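INPUT
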Amino acid sequence: MIEVENLTKKYGNARGINDVTFTVEKGEILGFLGPNGAGKTTTMRIITCFMPATSGKARVAGFDVFEDSLEVRKRIGYLPESVPLYTDMQVPVYLEFVGGLKGVDRREIKSRVGQVMDDCGLNGVAKKFIGELSKGYRQRVGLAQALINDPEVLILDEPTIGLDPKQIIEIRSLIKGLGGRRTVILSTHILPEVSMTCQRVIIINEGRLVAVDTPQNLTAQLQRSQQFIVRIGGPEKEVLSEVGKINTVSKVAVKESGADGINSYMVEFKKDSDGGKDIPPVIVRKNWALYEMRPIGMSLEDIFIKLVTEEKIH
Amino acid sequence: MKNFFLIFQKELRSYFNSPIAFVVITIFLIISGYFFYNIFATFSTISFQAMTNAILARQYGQLNITEMVVRPFFANISLFMLIMLPMLTMRIFSEEKKSGTIELLLTYPVKDSEVILGKFAGCMGIFTIMILLTLPCIFLIELFGEPELGVVVSGYVGLFCMGAAFISLGIFASSVTENQIVAAVVSFGFLLIFFMMGYSAGFASESIGDVLKYLSFMPHMYNSFAKGVLDTEDIMYYMLFTLFCIFLNMRSLESKRWRG
Ligand SMILES: Nc1ncnc2c1ncn2[C@@H]1O[C@H](COP(=O)(O)OP(=O)(O)OP(=O)(O)O)[C@@H](O)[C@H]1O
Ligand SMILES: [Mg+2]
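OUTPUT
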């Protein structure tokens, strides 16, 4: 549904994004992750035809964003990061205006506006001007205008920012409900959101793709570059040197020194080595006592930090 | 066409939802009314003197209400437009750029031309209301004398065409900056230059002088208000001016897309 090939955008000499390539299948919900200034908004602005790329191609539903911009724009609902709205309009009037521009039939527009106002929880503010709304309600209006013509593709730049927890849950389930019928790209900093709503994640850092995978795979794959906490009863110096000698171990250190020579050690294995199994034989051979051995699970947060600081996965 | 109409409607609405239209129209009417009062009072004083004093009457010659009231009235209004219209146009694109709403507007399936023409038409709507509200002055003149209808009609058509030219230039200026003050100053400055350009025709060589005179607003304005019939040449001038500004405006929106 969305194909992005070698997309590069330079702002003058400054880096925007660099050689980004990915595709999104029809009905898929794709999470776009990255630290501030990574290039999420830039990528979205190119896909939504707001600005052209310096080089590379992007296609939505087979239409090139530059050549067939109008066709692409017909199919997209876009929620920009800053949620720019006309503050001098009332909510339903605004939504009718946008619906009209996006080609919603005149006879259907009223019911369509009613529908999205229901979906986004806007019925309480139907009489208000947008300028009088709180940040969270503006966010909802922004989402409503993106949904108004029931577009095939939704591009949402940090859609849940500024919402209250209850609304976040509602909006997430709304987005999740869109998947299957609609193709969605959403950017976010909230990692649990990604594992909850998205089927696939793209991690982008300093304008480059760092990883593309399902949230589960990402977690699983990175957990294999494990760290273990091991509690061993034995002479500290010898433990450190013996465990350090195992060739799948990259690092070992005392985590906590206990009484009577039972210390907790932090053992880090080389990536993809699945080295947990190499420790017990050493302990057995040395006739030490093993009290505890457990892997330290990595949350998506850890993985994210690891990816954007390491920058060399894949 | 539907998009054009939607944007036109929204533009008109936003003028009335903010105090801009109200303030600009009110101030415009106060100034026009004040100047009209002065012209009219002068005329009636002179007429009164001429009625009572035969020597003076001979000196003044033919007292003509069209010549002495109607024409200066239009000339004044055209000057006030020069000052007031940049105030109406300055926000049109600058505000959208500043608040970021242009990002959504340009990602809707709407052609640039529909956006520009819709906004242009919306502003023309406000402007038309503004000049039509000066009609009571004409009725007053009608009450006291017999102005030539042709001059009145061609005067209004002239104002309308001139307004279109001013507004198109103002909207273009507004599309190149996100700062409303800059937009207003730029459009006012350029209008003034086009207004005065004819003056330098005197110093320039004949051919350049003719070009300058043609490009200047002044001679076209004079024609619109002086003769009873509007020259197609003048109408052409205003139309070309307007079209050229709208063309530049399209380019500037396009370059916005290019540069991001
Ligand atoms: N209009 C612009 N002019 C110049 N540089 C820009 C412009 N917009 C973005 N950039 C630069 O491009 C890079 C990517 O910015 P972008 O806004 O895409 O980041 P982001 O991933 O959306 O970040 P955030 O999480 O903070 O929203 C940044 O280094 C930024 O400084
Ligand atoms: Mg961003």
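end of record. Chain B has a mean pLDDT of 86.
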